[in-house]
Model the fold of this input.
Amino acid sequence: MTDSEIPVDERIAVGLAALGRPAYINLGRVDALPPVRDFEAMRAATYAVLDDAYRAGVRWIDVARSYGSSEEFLAGWLADRAHPEVTVSSKWGYRYVGEWKLDAAVHEVKEHTAARFAGQWAETVGLLGKAVSLYQVHSLTVDSPLFTDDRLVGALAELAAGGVPVGFSTSGPEQADAVRRAFELEVSGTPVFSAVQSTWNLLEPSVGPALAEAHAAGKRVLVKETVANGRLVVEPPPALGRIAREHEAGPDAVVIAAVLAQDWRPVAVIGPSSTAQLAENLVATKVKLTAEELGELAALAEEPVAYWRHRSCLGWH
Done:
């Protein structure tokens, strides 16, 4: 199989949130993973997904310090394969504390401080070196202490000035406010952030206008949780199921195609747990939704507070 046989949209990125650690909140993940989720098995599963993604033409990989061993897995894969032209984005701000246990009481701890940034940036560089093309604040919210921490903002600006683009991801019902506020941050007249990665999907599209503004301002826009942590695949609404059947595709391909259809040109970060899920996701590049279909799908949106309340109840599997 060659890259030309499977034309993949350049706006597809593979995220390793579901593969870098044994437990995560994605629905429909358990049966896709190895029966024994030890370190070696999860690394092998990660390599298999990355190999297939690269063969299909995907050149962007997204990881995070809190995604268990995702950076370590990616570093090993990059060293073993020596593939050129791979874009790597990572995140800091959460620390993985699950100790590779499925039933850990706590899996990750959030801390937006200058000390945490310095420590995690050193860990990221130690594994990935100069491969990092974008370093992001993980899950920035309007109440984050980052906004009033001049030392932290200055450190981020220094990293950006040194040639590593700096971005942030967002979560929660006030994502739009966080996006707009973050892009207002400047040091010596220069914007601190050049990219954003937000949750946007058919159930939670409320951040869309803010992302459109960011795109218009020349910022790089990424979208995560495109399948709503598996909700749109495991329990697809009737309209989604019907449209998927009409396109002879899975619901995951349709919802990812809806992301790619947005005129603010986001990069869709997909999070497959297996090569089979990856293949199903990549069908999105062949699905061309009509304006009528996009209108039907837009009607699936939930009230943001209700969406995030539901998400907070998803268990770690």
About this structure: The chain is about 40% helix and 15% strand.
